[in-house]
Amino acid sequence: MADAEGNKIAKEYHLDTPVAANGFYVKGMNHTGWGMKNRFSKLFNPKTGNTVMLAFDHGYIMGATAGLERLDLAIDPLVEQVDVLMGTRGALRSCINPITNKGICLRATHDSSVLFDDMSTGVGFGLDMEDALRMNADCIAMQCFVGGAGEARSLEVLCRAVDAGEKYGVPVMAVTAVGKEMARTNQYFMLATRMLAELGAHTIKTYYCEGFEKIVAACPVPIVIAGGKKVPELDALEMAYRGISDGARGVDMGRNIFQSESPIGMATAIGKIVHEQYTAKEAYELFLDIKNSVSKD
Q1: Is 37 a catalytic residue?
Q2: CATH topology for the 34-296 domain
Q3: Which residues contact 49 (CB under 8 A, 6 or more apart)?
Q4: Tens-of-pLDDT digits for all 297 residues of the chain?
Q5: 205 has which bridge partners?
Q6: Which of 205, 214, 272, 291 is labelled catalytic?
């Protein structure tokens, strides 16, 4: 039985050796079926291998989040600037035009609300996979707690979701959830991302931190960075730039887009970093140009 004591510290990440594509451009997915690969082509742009996801699933645990009081008015203007829409089935059915051709990442866990001290204890698989197929989902997102009281339950739910995903050809995104007792450290994210990938998750959403290039190298599936709490626009763009430079295959951003002074400008600027290798400074200048042009109108 492996334990936490007596292990050699991992150090050989071979950062100068890229992972072989072996026939399919999404890391670690060469041996999946045609249907799953087709769904991945909606999640990660085949030309760049990267993605911009717009997260607006905050209401399922937070209620009416600032900037999302009216989902229909907040999200529709941003659809064309992103690759993937990440929301709950209720939000998608009620507020997103079904003619959209964007990738759909469907939030599939039910968690305890922000009113609870330990949100990890309430996690569960919140929909039937057949409903995800009726929603034409390209991916389902599972909140996962590594560390904390609800870890075992959370990981069991992830495994059942992966089973269903493999059965129906639907990728599963595991989202690393950081509770009050979990430090946002390189050591924690290295552990969490690797565990979730080895339990079968097809892609991981996690937070950016120092030493991120090693976390990416040690994870056998694509990593997308989470936008996190609202920060100044330049700071958010710099985080996105560093994440992509360190090997992340995309950005899943919510509050730093829809709570921005110019949501369209911010979504456009993020896309330039992710797909066109803009620096943070170049993207910020574009953001200001769009912001100022809109204000003049």
Answers
A1: no
A2: TIM Barrel (3.20.20)
A3: 25, 26, 249
A4: 455 555 566 677 677 777 665 689 999 999 999 999 999 999 999 999 999 999 998 766 666 777 778 888 889 999 999 999 999 998 999 889 999 999 999 998 866 555 455 555 556 677 888 999 999 999 999 998 888 778 888 899 999 999 999 999 999 999 998 655 556 788 889 999 999 999 999 999 999 999 999 999 999 999 999 998 999 999 999 999 999 999 999 999 999 999 999 999 999 999 999 999 999 999 999 999 999 987 665
A5: 175, 224
A6: 205
